[in-house]
C-alpha cells in the first residue's frame, strides 16, 4: 500500500512538472510569435537585440528598408505596422529616428496625442537657445551643431520666430489648421493624401515637437554644405525650408537605409519605406 501511494505521488509529481514545462514552452513560443510578427522580413533583428551596441549600426547585408526598420526598432518601442496612419508618418517624418547622438532623446512613438503628452516628452529634453535668438529652442546637441554650421556661414531662420524651432502641440495644431482640416486629416490617415505632409505636419506629428527640426532660409551651396557637415539634412520631401538634425555625416546615412532623392536641385534624405 505504502509503496503504491508513493508511486502515485511520484506519478502526480511527474505529471505536474510535465504540465509546467509544457506551459512554459507554450508561453515562450507565443511570445516569440508576437514579438517577431512586425519584423518578419528582418532575420537580423533578433541578433541585434541580444547584442546591443552604441551606436547601433544595422546589418549591411540586408536591404535599405530592413536597415531602416532595424534602426527604428532599436530606437523606439512601438514599431508602426504597414498600412497604418503611424506607418505613413514614419515614412514621411521618421528619418530623424536614426539619430543616435548622445544627449539626444527621441519620442517613444510617431504621434504625441495632446499637449500634455508633448510637454511630458519635451520636459525630458535638454534644450538650449540657438545663438543670437531669444526664443529659438532646440535639443542642446542639435542647437550646438547648428551654431557650428552658422560659424562657417551665415544662415537665417525662416521667419525668425519660435515656430521655426521647437513647437508646442498647440502651435503644431494651429499651423495644421491654417492649411488643412479634419477632412484632410481623414484622407491622410487613409493614405489617400500625402502631399500635405510636405507642407504641414498633422497634429502631434511634427519633427518640431521633438526639438530636432528648424525652418531655415537656405539659398546657396555653402550653407547646405555647412549644415550637412554638422548633421543637418532635408528629410521631408518638398518641405524646402525644413531641416532635420540627424547627427550623422552624409556618408553614414545609407547605412541606416536612408535614400537620397534630388528634387529641383535639392537633395532630400528620405526613409526607404
Ligand atoms: Zn519645419
List the helices and strands and how they pair.
Elements: H1 2-36, H2 45-50, H3 64-75, H4 85-93, H5 115-123, E1 127-129, E2 137-139, H6 140-152, E3 156-157, H7 169-179, H8 182-189, E4 213-217, H9 221-229, E5 232-233, E6 242-245, E7 259-263, E8 266-270
Antiparallel strand pairs: 1-2, 3-4, 4-6, 5-6, 7-8
The structure holds zinc ion (ZN).
The site of zinc ion has 4 residues, from strand 4.
Domain D-alanyl-D-alanine carboxypeptidase-like core: 152-231
Protein name: D-alanyl-D-alanine carboxypeptidase family protein
Keywords: Carboxypeptidase, Hydrolase, Protease
Q: Could you name the key traits of this structure?
A:
273 residues, 9 helices, binds zinc ion, protease, carboxypeptidase activity, carboxypeptidase, hydrolase, VanY-like_core_dom
Structure, described:
Helices cover 41% and strands 11% of the residues. It is built from nine helices and eight strands. The chain has a four-stranded antiparallel beta sheet. A two-stranded antiparallel sheet has the order 1-2. A hairpin with a 7-residue loop joins strand 1 and strand 2 (137-139). The longest helix has 35 residues, at 2-36. Bound molecules: zinc ion (ZN). Zinc ion binds next to strand 4. GO terms for molecular function: carboxypeptidase activity. This is D-alanyl-D-alanine carboxypeptidase family protein. One of its GO terms (biological process) is proteolysis.
Amino acid at each position: 500500500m505504502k509503496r503504491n501511494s508513493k508511486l502515485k505521488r511520484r506519478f502526480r509529481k511527474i505529471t505536474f512538472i510535465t504540465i509546467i514545462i509544457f506551459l512554459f514552452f507554450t508561453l515562450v513560443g507565443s511570445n516569440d510569435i508576437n514579438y517577431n510578427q512586425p519584423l518578419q522580413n528582418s532575420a537580423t533583428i533578433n541578433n541585434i537585440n541580444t547584442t546591443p551596441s552604441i551606436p547601433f549600426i544595422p546589418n549591411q547585408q540586408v536591404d535599405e528598408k530592413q536597415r531602416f526598420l532595424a534602426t527604428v526598432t532599436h530606437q523606439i518601442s512601438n514599431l508602426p505596422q504597414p498600412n497604418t496612419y503611424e506607418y505613413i508618418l514614419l515614412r514621411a517624418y521618421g528619418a530623424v529616428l536614426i539619430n543616435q547622438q548622445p544627449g539626444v532623446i527621441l519620442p517613444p512613438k510617431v504621434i504625441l496625442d495632446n499637449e500634455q503628452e508633448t510637454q511630458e516628452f519635451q520636459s525630458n529634453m535638454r534644450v538650449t537657445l540657438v545663438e543670437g535668438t531669444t526664443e529659438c529652442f532646440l535639443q542642446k546637441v542639435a542647437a550646438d551643431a547648428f551654431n557650428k554650421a552658422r560659424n562657417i556661414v551665415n544662415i537665417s531662420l525662416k521667419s525668425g520666430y519660435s515656430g521655426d524651432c521647437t513647437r508646442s502641440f498647440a502651435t503644431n495644431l494651429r499651423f495644421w489648421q491654417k492649411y488643412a482640416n479634419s477632412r484632410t486629416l481623414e484622407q491622410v490617415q487613409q493614405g489617400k493624401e500625402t502631399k500635405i505632409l510636405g507642407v504641414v505636419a498633422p497634429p502631434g506629428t511634427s519633427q518640431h515637437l521633438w526639438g530636432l527640426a528648424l525652418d531655415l532660409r537656405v539659398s546657396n551651396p555653402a550653407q547646405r554644405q555647412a549644415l550637412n557637415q554638422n548633421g543637418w539634412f532635408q528629410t521631408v520631401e518638398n518641405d524646402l525650408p525644413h531641416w532635420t538634425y540627424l547627427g550623422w555625416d552624409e556618408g553614414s546615412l545609407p547605412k541606416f537605409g536612408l535614400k537620397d532623392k534630388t528634387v529641383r536641385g535639392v537633395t532630400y534624405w528620405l526613409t526607404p519605406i
